[in-house]
Amino acid sequence: MEKKVAKALLQIKAVFLRPDEPFTWASGIKSPIYCDNRLILTAPEARNIVEQAIADTVKKEYPDAEVLMGTSTAGIAHAAIAGHLLGMPMGYVRGSAKDHGRQNKIEGRLEKGQKVVVIEDLISTGGSVIDVVDALREAGAEVLGIVSIFTYGMQKGLDRLAAAEVKNVSLTNLDAVAEEAAESGYIKEEDVVRLKKFRDNPSDESWINAQ
Prior knowledge:
The two termini are 30 Å apart. Helix content is 39%, strand content 22%. Helix 1 (2-11) runs antiparallel to helix 2 (44-61) and helix 1 crosses helix 6 (174-183). It has helices spanning 2-11, 44-61, 76-86, 127-138, 155-163, 174-183, 189-200; strands at 15-17, 23-24, 30-31, 33-35, 67-71, 90-93, 106-107, 115-123, 142-151, 168-173. The strands form three sheets. A six-stranded mixed sheet has the order 7-6-5-8-9-10, sandwiched between helices. Strands 1-4 form a two-stranded antiparallel ribbon. A two-stranded antiparallel ribbon has the order 2-3. The relative contact order is 0.17.
């Protein structure tokens, strides 16, 4: 599954790899990789692969799941489609509560004690998805875990998820994408090492000149 999803993301250019011309994240970190999983929604073939993989992963890893909850905004459509495939209810968690109406942070019906799986499109340092997990737990849900489409596999993210005691299963990851990209000739074999060095410590920019 990791290779199949990685290949699909590369084919639709949802993942860009530029080790020689790094992207700059909002945090100022230089990155050899940029991932935009919103493009999945506009590519039916890749979308079918990804949404079926999400549904299959929920069934396999979280067989007791009762509700899917998407992260706002990127996870909402994926939770909706996977929920449709599974015949399960879904909702989503806002980044912050509305300032009008019922002032909801969680949209959709959620009963206390219900077993929830969070659907996220991408995990880097894990902060935003853990906020979603915390909101669901505060509402009385039992969060079984997360299904994410892509993870960078950064140690900070892994540590945060462990500290929050929440399981994450990603369809694919930086390593799988890098290796698939090298096999297809998109990047050089030596660039795979540079990408993994970035993953291990994003603050260490020595990978930029390690050609």
